[in-house]
Every structure is written in C-alpha cells, then in structure tokens.
C-alpha cells in the first residue's frame, strides 16, 4: 500500500477489493450471507469497508453502514446503490458512534475489530446503541486457541500491524465480546479456528456499558 503522495484517492480500496475477491467467492460470501439472515429491522454495520457485506442484507432491513476511511466509504456507497436493503453510508469510528441509545436492532461487524483502536470502548458503544436483546453479529479473525498457532500470531502481530493498516493477528475478539457483557449465542469456527462467525445478544435491562480498567 502506497503513501498519500503515490496512491490515488480510493486506490487502496480498489486493491483491497481485488485481493479479497477470490476469498469472497470461495467462502466469505457464504458466511456473510448466513449471518446477515439474522440482521433484521434497524441494522448498523461497523467497519463497512468497500461494502462487501451490503448485498446480503434482507430487503426488509434498514442499514446504516459506518466506515472511517473515505476511500472505502466511497466504494461502499456505490455498493449500497445495488443492495436490496436501503443503505446509508456514514463516516465515523466505532469508539464514538454518532447515534442515540437503543437506535438499532442489530449490529454487524466483519473483519473490522482487528483494527479498532479500543475494542472495549467500541463494544461499549455497541451495547449503548443496541436495543435490549438486540443482536451482535460478527465475522472476525481471532487469536487462535491452540499452540503453536497462538504463539506464532503473537510473535508476528507487531510486524503484520505495521504493513496491514493496524490489523492485529492476536486480537481475542470473542473474549472481549463476553467481557463487554454480551451473551454469546452461537460460534462457528472456520480455518482451524482462525475465523469465527459469532452471534451474541445485547443484555436485557440496564444499557450502561461495564466500566473497564
């Protein structure tokens, strides 16, 4: 990936799409579609990227897609125009969501929590904007549970983050979801446990996020 002086606007987003296309065709698209079937009502997608997920939402959903990168967001808007569900693309970050409490019935995150700067803060925000009992749907790569894979991920994580836009190989997202107070309903592992489909429920009752630290 080039720097700001050599990469045209949106160029890295186009490269990302080209690199990911074979994986989308092979497996990722099917996993996305299966999770999206549980996204009903008002849906927030966090880290929409170039909009790979948008085609899979059912027509009855109303989707708000949040993406911090302007180049990615521009491509997501083009994907939104072809989606079955109405989609609004908004630029912003997961740690400071510009939405009122209990604004959404479901939140979807796909390969975005590996780059979130503060996962605990982001999950606290997701709790805040979800209705009680609302669904958290995630497709994420995670820290492996077995050795030596887990150790190798930890060893490679700093170098990988430096060349992959801050992506962390050793992000234990499932644990963070539980620590944030969500009730995990289903987990489906893929690729020897490296990628996980996760469905969780927002706690019913007081919506104040747990205090961390």
Question: Which strand order does the major sheet show?
Answer: 3-2-1-4-5-7-6
Strand content: 15-25%
Overall shape: it is: globular
| Alpha-carbon Rg, integer | 17 Å
Distance between the termini: 35 Å
How many helical stretches?
A: 5
Please trace the helix and strand order, writing H or E for each element: HEEHEEHEHHEE
Look at the helices and sheets and give the structural class.
Answer: alpha/beta
Per CATH, the superfamily is: Vaccinia Virus protein VP39
Q: Which residue ranges are poorly predicted, with pLDDT under 50 across at least 5 consecutive positions?
A: 1-11, 206-213
DSSP, total strands: 7
Q: In CATH terms, what is the fold-level topology?
A: Rossmann fold
CATH top level?
A: Alpha Beta
Q: Helicity, in percent?
A: 25-40%
What does this structure look like?
- The chain is an alpha/beta fold and 213 residues long.
- Helices cover 33% and strands 23% of the residues.
- It has a seven-stranded mixed sheet, sandwiched between helices.
- A hairpin with a 4-residue loop joins β6 and β7 (195-201).
- The radius of gyration is 17 Å and the shape is globular.
